[in-house]
Design goal:
By secondary structure, the chain is α+β, with helices and mostly antiparallel strands. Helix content is 35%, strand content 30%. Strands 1, 2, 3, 4 and 5 form a 5-stranded antiparallel beta sheet that branches.
């Protein structure tokens, strides 16, 4: 399943978050990233797209960066699949 992960951090915690990000050897099982991370202009928040069949991977990501970052994950679906499901329901 695909998710959009929204993240936010306090600017005073940027160095701590950067250290965790650069220490990739200590990363637990995270969801697969399917896009680069994007920051919202001039703010310390942004989003990235992920894919995983194991929701525990999302929990691992959020806990790894806590308490400096907050994550919210929302499942996303391809429009073609939504249309296909809708058409099946109409039959």
């Amino acid at each position: 399943m695909k998710y959009i992960g929204f993240w936010e951090l306090d600017p005073k915690d940027f160095d701590k978050v950067l250290k965790k990000y650069l220490d990739q050897d200590s990363w637990p099982d995270f969801p697969e990233t399917i896009t680069e991370g994007y920051g919202l202009g001039g703010e310390f928040r942004g989003f990235q797209l992920y894919e995983t069949d194991n929701p525990e991977h999302l929990t691992n990501l959020a806990l790894y960066y806590a308490p400096e970052m907050e994550f919210t994950f929302t499942p996303i679906f391809e429009i073609a699949k939504i249309v296909e499901a809708y058409q099946k329901m109409q039959k």
